[in-house]
Amino acid sequence: AGHRVAAHGAKQAAAQARALIARNALNVDLTGKVALIAGVGDASGYGWAIARELANAGATIIIGTWPPVLKLFQMSLKKKATEEARKLDDGSLMEIAKIYPLDAMFDTP
């Protein structure tokens, strides 16, 4: 159930961002810039929505994902079902330049 809530929240966040762009409230050109989005593990979460909006603004997308889901995430991107989630506002598909395994280590002072 939590995954559905997160997916719904990501869709809402993406819709709100598109609404701002449509109203020209957010007019950013990120062409030539590179964006690293950490924590993306599927095509339905907040990280994915952020990646899409940055790609819509022209940024080159690099993703950092948790090492245990890296292969599954890479395989999911090759599936036809993911194509709809990759569609950008101009109809093109979001390209991901690189996917890195990214793990966090926590320390206490």
Mean pLDDT: 84
How much of the sequence is in beta strands? 15-25%
The CATH class designation is Alpha Beta
Q: Return residue spans where pLDDT drops below 50 for at least 5 consecutive residues.
A: none
Q: In angstroms, what is the radius of gyration?
A: 14 Å
The helix count comes to: 4
* Main structural class: alpha/beta
CATH homology superfamily? NAD(P)-binding Rossmann-like Domain
Number of domains: 1
Helical content band:
40-55%
**What letter string, H or E per element, gives the SSE order?**
HEHEHHE
- For the terminal residues, how far apart are their CA atoms? 36 Å
User: What is the overall shape?
Assistant: globular
What is the correct CATH architecture?
Answer: 3-Layer(aba) Sandwich
- Briefly note the CATH topology name: Rossmann fold
**Strand count:** 3
User: Order of strands side by side in the largest beta sheet?
Assistant: 1-2-3
InterPro entries: Enoyl-ACP_Rdtase_NADH, NAD(P)-bd_dom_sf
Pathway: Lipid metabolism
Keywords: Fatty acid biosynthesis, Fatty acid metabolism, Lipid biosynthesis, Lipid metabolism, Oxidoreductase
GO molecular function: enoyl-[acyl-carrier-protein] reductase (NADH) activity
Give an overview of the whole structure.
Helices cover 40% and strands 16% of the residues. The protein is α/β, with parallel strands linked by helices and 109 residues long. It has one domain (2-101): NAD(P)-binding Rossmann-like Domain (Rossmann fold, 3-Layer(aba) Sandwich), CATH 3.40.50.720. Strands 1-2-3 form a 3-stranded parallel sheet. The chain is globular, with a radius of gyration of 14 Å.
